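Quick log. Single chain, no ligands specified.
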Amino acid sequence: MRKLPRHGRFLSSQDVSERFGISRFTLRRWVADPALDFPQPTMVNRRYYYREIEVFRWEMRKAGYDPDMPPTLATMEPVSGVVTDYEQFVDALTKRRSAMKMSCIELDALSGMQEGYSNKLENYGRPNGRGMGPEVFPLWLGGLRVGIVFVDLPRRPRRLKNQVATAVKIDFDAIA
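-> predicted structure:
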C-alpha cells in the first residue's frame, strides 16, 4: 500500500473537479492533453491525487500570471513563495532563520520571546510544541525581519468540507 508523501498537500480528483467545476471525464482529458500541460497525478490505492502547489501554479499560468516569484515586491525582495497553510508558514519562517544563520536562542533574544520559545514554535506538532498566538506573532515576524503580503488568488483555494457538522449530529427533538 503506497502512501502520499508528507511534503505538501494533495488534492483528490474530486477536489480538483469541484475546484474547477468540471466532471471527472473532463479532468482525465485535461491530464491526457499535452497542450494544456495540466499537472500529472500520483496514484495511491487506485486513486489519483494532485499536488496542490502544482495545480495552483497551473492556474496562475492559465490566468496569465507568472507563478514564479517576482524579482521585487514594493522595492523589497520576497523571501518565500506562496503559503497556503500553517505548516508551510512555519517551514518558511524556519528556512528564513536558517538563511540568516541564526540560532533559535539568538532569535529569541532579538525578538523578545522567552528563551527556547521559537524552537517550540518551529516544532508545533510535537508534544512540547506550541502554536502561534496573537502576542507571539509580531515578535516572531519582527525577529526574522519579515512581513506578510496578501495577494489575490486566481481561483478560490481548496474548500474543506464542513467536517464538524457532519461528524456531530445531535437530534435535539430526542433530547427534549
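The beta strands are 10-12, 42-44, 47-51.
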